[in-house]
Model the fold of this input.
Amino acid sequence: MRFSVPGMRIDYTRSVPAYVSVFLLLCSPREVIAPAGSEPWLCQLAPRCGDKIYNPLEQCCYDDAILSLSQTRQCGPHCTFWPCFELCCPESFGLTNNFVVKLKVQGVNSQCHSSPISSDCHSKRYFP
Done:
């Protein structure tokens, strides 16, 4: 087997010390071949949910659990919401617990008091 570096030719059928091989590999020209627009996964921080890694194109982290983007949860007695995209916010307490579903704003740590309303659960008496 032959390995060539520009201006140098090595025949590996003969014994070559390991440090020479490592030196030649480090000094040889490197070129990454990848599709245009692709980015290497190894150089990016993977999103985590607790100690688990998840795929943000298919999943989200909600309450330290990895959920599918299509999963729903109950919000009060009359509503459902998508935890990956919405917040379930209590609007009042007491004898009549009213809930409001609000939108999560991308790129921001969304909170009930500052997010726009998606739907009012008080007016619904069924699961959509």
Remarks:
- Helices lie at 18-27.
- The first strand starts at residue 2 and ends at 5.
- DSSP finds one helix and eleven strands in the chain.
